[in-house]
Design goal:
Elements (H helix, E strand, L loop, with lengths): L5 E5 L4 H13 L3 E6 L11 H4 L13 H4 L5 E4 L3 H14 L2 E4 L6 H10 L4 E4 L5 H16 L5 E8 L9 H14 L3 H4 E2 L14 E7 L5 E9 L2 E9 L3 H14 L5 E3 L1 H4 L3
Parallel strand pairs: 1-2, 1-3, 3-4, 4-5, 5-11, 6-8, 7-8
Antiparallel strand pairs: 6-9, 9-10
Helix pairs in contact: 1-9, 4-5, 6-7
Length: 269
């Protein structure tokens, strides 16, 4: 048991953080390491197991990244872009595997992550599930097969507490479609429609966003042509799929050379 890799969780008090605690603890493949919470959180200095209303985990949560992530072989991080950049710097300094499920990065923040990935294993994905990554592969193939007579729309739905839009998964699917067509997504992305927008521009990849209730995650990629539509879909009903994927990524990254990887690497796709 003591030989198992130690996995720390950043953002331990969040929805995904709590799910990761359960998945890692019950996996039999890793030991739960440090649990990091945001500064001033009421879990700081407490055992999160008791804070969640269950049995003690034997670990005290901390709001100090240097302390919480000390001794970890890997850190799984579903937090915020600024926090993920801070943890990436620590990973580059200490050499632990950094699994990033955070979304909403700016271009400059992505450049900062790439710099840190030169000195540590970084696995970053807009979605950690097997199904979504298979869907992205299908989207790329279909986009390559169909010409611009087929309009592409990415429609996504999430719970009402999600703060970024479009979702990281939607953008990942848009990137897959753009790659299939051999164009940069930035040149064909249509992410804002309001008022008198005029006709749809040929070749654009559109995004539509729904926020409501407790929707875990739903993504459709529609190829709309004359007289027919092809829709590729993924529906998530349990956040555990993302936690299991993130744990798989963390274990896969152990012993790999420094660099930036994604779930297609982890899954051999």
């Amino acid at each position: 048991m003591t030989d198992l890799p130690v996995i720390a969780v950043a953002g331990a008090a969040g929805r995904m953080g709590q799910m990761l605690i359960h998945v890692i603890r019950d996996s039999g493949q890793a030991r739960l390491g440090g649990l990091l919470v945001r500064p001033g959180h009421d879990w700081a200095g407490r055992d999160p197991g008791e804070a969640m209303g269950g049995s003690a985990l034997g670990i005290v949560a901390s709001d100090d990244p240097a302390r919480a992530l000390a001794g970890a072989d890997a850190v799984i991080d579903f937090t915020s872009p600024d926090s993920s950049l801070e943890f990436a710097a620590l990973a580059a300094e200490r050499g632990f595997v950094h699994v990033i499920g955070t979304t909403g990065f700016s271009e400059s923040q992505l450049a900062g992550l790439q710099d840190h990935a030169q000195r540590a294993v970084m696995i970053r994905a807009g979605n950690m599930s097997l199904g979504v990554n298979l869907l992205a592969g299908l989207v790329q193939r279909v986009a390559a097969a169909l010409d611009e007579d087929f309009d592409i729309e990415v429609i996504e739905a999430h719970h009402n507490r999600k703060v970024d839009a479009p979702s990281g998964t939607a953008l990942m699917l848009g990137e897959a479609a753009a790659k299939g067509r051999g164009v940069p997504l930035a040149e064909v992305s249509d992410r804002a429609r309001d008022g008198h927008t005029g006709a749809r521009r040929r070749g654009d990849i559109g995004f539509a966003v729904v926020r409501g209730g407790d929707i875990v995650g739903e993504h459709d990629v529609m190829f709309a042509g004359k007289g027919e539509r092809l829709v590729l879909s993924h529906v998530a009903t349990d956040r555990a799929i993302f936690a299991r994927g993130a744990l798989r990524a963390a274990l896969w990254g152990l012993g790999r050379p420094p660099g930036e990887y994604d779930m297609t690497d982890v899954l051999g796709l």
